[in-house]
């Protein structure tokens, strides 16, 4: 009965040390139950199968196989990293057992006695090595910066296991105390070399990682400089456009006072299109709303787009005319731009309702293709000159925020609907 308890304790110690080793350096899968299942399977495999294997080669193959299965089930790491760390874990385990064996040869001349107690002591040495490795590498090994470092670590730890097997065989055959003492020193040196190899591996990987990060930072700074230059250029262009527009408005104001007909001609030339007041589309009495609706209606008709209007507003609204023009003009521009790409069903629905001291503007239109958004959640224009487009909804949003309103967008079945309440 005591042998069964000792066997369970030793295997549990192995499970604990190996789980601590791999969980310290690998990222677990999201579903933690697989971690539990994997290590329970590892325990059963070692308790039932591994204790029946007597050869060193069989033990190495069995350990590598069982640890590979556990890492594949419980952790999210690349095959190359998994293999290297499995070899390191096995090497530390073999050398820890080798330390105990060589000490026993020196003290007793053999390894007879409570083998399970010796195995448990070896697991404690292994666990101490794991703690040392954790101090050297704070964090998990999430990527491979240089594959050759992984191969060097794998080859080095594999060679150390072979050296440990040779040392064990020499200690088993030799009776010279000096030789056995020298073998103990060599065993500790091999154990230290495993730790050193791991340190070199992490050091070179971190060095390469820092180089990659520096290069990424350099690219980000370069991109930031470009964006800053573009922004300054746009600001200069905007100030120039605003200045030119102010001058044009001053000239137009003078023309209205002196020569209205010439002012009309100048305005038509400035706008770029002639609008006739005949057959007006909107007749609400609100000059700003009617002007924008009628102008956009003519533009839509020229592009063979039907526009349906629902209009219930008073003559006077408690909003600046310029704000109303910004909101309605941008919404209709976007709707016309999206609808003109269609071959059929070129219909736009526009609704303006004024209720409870709030103006509800709704524009609905079909569209084709997929709508894309940027990181801020704003829709991205499909035009090639994106730098000068896609700002319409941003302008609308500013007006909505000014009046503490609401803007909602719904897309379903290739229908785009935007509702604005101000």
Task: Write a structural description.
This protein has helices at 2-25, 33-48, 56-74, 79-107, 115-136, 147-173, 177-258, 260-271, 287-302, 321-339, 392-402, and strands at residues 306-312, 347-355, 358-366, 406-412, 415-421. With 422 residues, it is α+β, with helices and mostly antiparallel strands. The chain has a 5-stranded mixed sheet with strand order 1-2-3-5-4, with helices on one face. It starts with a helix and ends with a strand.
Helix-strand layout with pairing:
Blueprint lengths: L1 H24 L7 H16 L7 H19 L4 H29 L7 H22 L10 H27 L3 H82 L1 H12 L15 H16 L3 E7 L8 H19 L7 E9 L2 E9 L25 H11 L3 E7 L2 E7 L1
Parallel strand pairs: 1-2
Antiparallel strand pairs: 2-3, 3-5, 4-5
Helix pairs in contact: 1-2, 1-5, 2-3, 3-4, 4-5, 4-6, 4-7, 5-7, 6-7, 7-8, 9-10, 10-11
């Amino acid at each position: 009965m005591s042998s069964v308890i000792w066997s369970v304790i030793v295997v549990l110690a192995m499970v604990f040390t190996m789980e601590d080793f791999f969980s310290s350096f690998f990222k677990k899968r999201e579903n933690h139950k697989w971690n539990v299942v994997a290590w329970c399977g590892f325990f059963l495999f070692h308790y039932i199968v591994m204790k029946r294997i007597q050869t060193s080669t069989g033990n190495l193959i069995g350990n590598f196989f069982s640890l590979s299965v556990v890492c594949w089930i419980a952790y999210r790491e690349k095959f190359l990293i998994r293999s290297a760390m499995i070899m390191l874990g096995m090497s530390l385990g073999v050398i820890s057992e080798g330390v105990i064996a060589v000490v026993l040869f020196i003290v007793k001349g053999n390894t007879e006695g409570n083998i399970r107690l010796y195995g448990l002591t070896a697991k404690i040495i292994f666990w101490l090595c794991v703690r040392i490795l954790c101090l050297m590498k704070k964090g998990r090994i999430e990527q491979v910066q240089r594959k050759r470092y992984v191969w060097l670590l794998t080859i080095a730890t594999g060679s150390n296991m072979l050296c440990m097997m040779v040392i064990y065989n020499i200690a088993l055959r030799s009776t010279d105390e000096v030789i056995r003492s020298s073998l103990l020193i060599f065993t500790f040196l091999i154990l230290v070399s495993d730790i050193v190899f791991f340190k070199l591996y992490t050091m070179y990987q971190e060095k390469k990682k820092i180089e990659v990060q520096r290069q990424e930072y350099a690219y980000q700074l370069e991109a930031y400089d470009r964006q800053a230059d573009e922004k300054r250029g746009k600001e200069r262009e905007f100030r120039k456009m605003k200045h030119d527009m102010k001058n044009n408005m001053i000239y137009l104001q003078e023309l209205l006072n002196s020569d209205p007909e010439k002012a009309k001609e100048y305005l038509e030339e400035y706008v770029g299109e002639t609008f006739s007041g005949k057959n007006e589309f909107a007749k609400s009495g609100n000059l700003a709303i009617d002007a924008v609706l009628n102008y956009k209606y003519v533009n839509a008709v020229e592009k063979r787009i039907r526009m349906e209007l629902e209009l219930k507003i008073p003559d006077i609204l408690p909003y600046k005319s310029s704000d109303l023009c910004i909101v309605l003009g941008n919404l209709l521009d976007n709707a016309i731009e999206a609808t003109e790409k269609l071959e059929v069903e070129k219909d736009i629905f526009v609704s303006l309702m004024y209720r409870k001291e709030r103006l509800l503007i709704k524009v609905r239109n079909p569209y084709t293709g997929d709508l894309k958004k940027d990181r801020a959640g704003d829709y991205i224009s499909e035009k090639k000159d994106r730098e000068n487009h896609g700002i319409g909804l941003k302008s609308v949003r500013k007006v909505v925020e000014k009046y503490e309103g609401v803007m909602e967008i719904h897309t379903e079945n290739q229908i785009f609907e935007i509702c604005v309440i101000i």
